[in-house]
Design a protein that fits this description.
Layout (H helix, E strand, L loop, with lengths): L4 E13 L2 H16 L13 E13 L3 E5 L6 H9 L6 E6 L3 E4 L12 H11 L4 H15 L14 H13 L5 E5 L7 H16 L3 E5 L3 H7 L2 E6 L2 E7 H14 L10 E4 L4 E9 L8 E3 L4 E14 L1 E8 L5 E6 L9 E12 L7 E11 L5 E14 L24
Parallel strand pairs: 3-7, 3-8, 5-6, 6-7, 12-18
Antiparallel strand pairs: 1-2, 1-4, 8-9, 10-18, 11-13, 13-16, 14-15, 14-17, 17-18
Length: 412
């Protein structure tokens, strides 16, 4: 293997059995066959088995960070455990050059009846540290965990945050050449999370190799230049991080499983007042529900009032595929005020440049009288539209800012 390669995975597959009974039976048979020097048929699927990881191949160079993404059940954590040696592959070969440290299950190996101090030594030993190394780094571990005098308290009395802090502190002090990370950077409070990110950054800058699994796509974009997309145990795409993440997010957006595929609820409080129809339009007033980042956006609310509505207020709330509110607007607060309306008509909610990141979105609209709380008609999460485009530089939204820098060179 090339000296510059830290991890090499060649046609690796790992299978599991859905039935515990059959799994135990297969295990006994395999042990017996191996004892007799016979093949255990590890390369073939038997009744109830499936490939959790199927024919996966890739390389990670020294000092490189690889992000692994994919939906739940795609084989991400299984692959990480194969890299860490927790499981052996049923097919293929894994070559690791250097000491690997895993942050797969933070705090795994902690005994609830033992103190934090005692668990530091036990957990560090599991991660490959000697007693001498632990004694040298013990004060640094405790300082990093920031749990104060509770270090001599049994961990069963720890809060979940304290438990994770101590587990992470031990793991990052094992000084590996390769760090395997599975959804553990979002731990503790904000201050501790920032401390974790700084520690990870220091590790990468010192030439450490990182393989990171996360559902936080922005975190994957931030930490690496290369990403691997797993789906159903197979590699769907591997390459430059923004390219792969864009493809994955576009797939999630367009998938019927991404949420908001059914109509929400409509609550009618006044039979004389109705929101009769809601439309998404482009800048030519044509029906349009698939936008691109930066497009003109118009939402038209049609109404029918069989009585006079005084001081009408319309609201539009937009939620992303995770249910987070990304925009909430009130017609009266935005300067669109009327003393009264009666009859049939519509009101338009317009955005000159659609600033939302690529995703699927759902809208709620309400029609109120005199004050927002006095709702006459409420359509909750009933209207869906999508936004496509590259999301490499986006958070929830991109406000299309203009930057201006001024400074006094050499001054104070």
């Amino acid at each position: 293997m090339n000296d510059n390669i830290a991890i090499k995975v060649e046609h690796v597959s790992k299978k599991y059995c859905k039935s515990l009974k059959w799994s135990m039976l297969y295990g006994i048979k395999d042990i017996g066959r191996n004892t007799l020097g016979l093949s255990s048929y590890s390369e073939k699927l038997r009744k109830g088995e499936f490939w959790a990881v199927d024919d996966v191949s890739f390389e990670v160079r020294k000092g490189e960070t690889l992000g692994i993404i994919g939906p739940n059940g795609s084989g991400k954590t299984t692959l990480l455990k194969l890299l860490n040696g927790i499981f052996w592959p049923d097919k293929g070969k894994i070559t690791i050059k250097g000491k690997a440290g895993a942050l797969i299950e933070v705090g795994a190996g902690f005994h609830p009846l033992l103190t934090g101090r005692e668990n530091v030594y036990i957990n560090a030993a599991i991660l490959g540290m000697t007693k001498k190394e632990v004694e040298k780094d013990f004060d640094s571990i405790v300082e990093f965990a920031d749990i104060g005098d509770f270090i001599d308290t049994p961990v069963k009395f720890y809060s979940s945050g304290m438990f994770v802090r101590l587990g992470f502190a031990v793991a990052v002090h094992c000084e590996p050449d390769i760090l395997l990370v599975d959804e553990v950077l979002a731990v503790g409070d904000l201050a501790f999370a920032l401390k974790c990110h700084r520690k990870m950054s220091e590790f990468r800058q010192s030439g450490g190799t990182v393989v990171m699994v996360s559902h936080n796509i922005q975190a994957i974009r931030n930490v690496g230049k290369k990403a691997l997309w797993l789906n159903g145990g197979e590699i769907k795409e591997i390459g430059e991080v923004h390219h792969v993440c864009d493809l994955y997010e576009a797939d999630v957006v367009m998938s019927r499983k991404s949420g908001y595929d059914t109509i929400g609820s409509q609550l009618h409080y006044d039979p004389a007042v109705r929101i009769s129809k809601v439309e998404f339009l482009d800048n030519n007033d044509q029906i349009f529900t698939s936008y691109k980042v930066g497009d003109y956006f118009k939402l038209r609310i049609h109404f029918a009032c069989r009585r006079i509505v005084k001081n009408p207020i319309f609201t539009v709330s937009i939620f992303n595929s995770e249910g987070l509110t990304v925009s909430s607007n009130y017609s009266n607060f935005d300067g669109c005020e009327f003393s009264q309306i009666f009859g049939v008509g519509y009101i338009d909610f317009c955005l000159d440049k659609l600033a939302f990141k690529p995703s699927k979105y759902v809208c709620s609209v309400t029609f109120s009288e005199e004050e927002v709380a006095n709702v006459l008609d409420w359509h909750e999460k009933c209207y869906v539209f999508t936004v496509a485009g590259s999301s490499a530089n986006y958070g929830l939204i991109n406000p299309f800012p203009k930057w201006s820098l001024k400074y006094n060179q050499g001054g104070r």
